[in-house]
Design goal:
This protein is 35% helix and 26% strand. By secondary structure, it is α+β, with helices and mostly antiparallel strands. The chain has one domain (65-229): Glutaredoxin, CATH 3.40.30. The strands form four sheets. It has a five-stranded mixed β-sheet. It has a two-stranded antiparallel ribbon with strand order 1-2.
């Protein structure tokens, strides 16, 4: 029994049409999710105001923000949100007397990779007020680029409320011995230009580091998209 040539043609056309369908219909769907918005960490409060989406009233959300601060860097300059306006910030905690400095070594690699990208800044905040007199030499040891990676220090009355309430990290000073030591969160934060925490990463975890590197790029894409849309 001879096969129907018209049937063969229809089958062939159907097979050839499938890749086109996938490209024109499924690919745009996935492309929209390529830069899935990062979460926003911290307490969220539903506001009494609304915005409209396709005619539907949606309650506004007030997100946790890292409060403003004024800390001195290794160049004896004051660093605050004003000096970091419209910047994406990668932040970690440290103190100069700690052994290893693995996190700062990693931040060194990251900051060197973003040396020519002024949108991204790096901050390392000391948990030890005694570091105020050491951060210049300490930063020089990492060859921290001026304007790219700032080491910040201040009194605990300034830094600890910022760390605990603002950055949502832990720090404890153990002053039971002659020389105090510090226990603190070995985390890296990703903070957007609106001062919202968009990522918290375990500095000792290779997978978390890879995720941070990917999500810095996602946040850059989000920022540029918002600028283009006038948001």
């Amino acid at each position: 029994m001879k096969s129907n040539p018209i049937k063969k043609v229809l089958i062939l056309v159907s097979i050839l049409a499938i890749p086109g369908f996938l490209f024109f219909y499924l690919l745009p769907h996935f492309a929209k999710n390529r830069y899935k918005s990062l979460p926003i960490f911290g307490q969220k409060i539903v506001a009494s105001t609304f915005h409209s989406v396709k005619g539907k009233k949606i309650p506004d959300t007030i997100y946790h923000l890292v409060p403003d601060f004024k800390l001195i860097n290794q160049h004896n300059d004051t660093v605050s949100w004003k000096s970091l306006e419209n910047k994406i910030v990668v932040l970690n905690l440290f103190y100069a007397e700690a052994t290893g400095q693995h996190t700062n070594k990693y931040i060194k690699q990251l900051s060197d990779g973003y040396e020519q990208k002024p949108l991204v800044k790096f901050l390392s905040v000391s948990v030890d007020p005694a570091d105020k007199s050491k951060i210049k030499e300490f930063a020089d040891g990492f060859k921290a680029k001026e304007g790219k990676w700032d080491f910040l220090a201040g009194d605990t009355t300034q830094t600890y409320p910022l760390i605990k309430q603002g950055l949502l990290l832990d720090v404890i000073e153990d002053d039971s011995k002659e020389k105090p030591s510090f226990i603190f969160s070995n985390k890296i934060l990703l903070i957007d230009n609106l001062h919202r925490i968009r990522g918290i990463y375990d500095a000792d975890n290779a997978e978390a580091n890879a995720k941070l590197e990917d999500e810095i790029k996602v946040l850059i894409a989000e920022y540029l998209r918002n600028v283009k849309d006038g948001r």
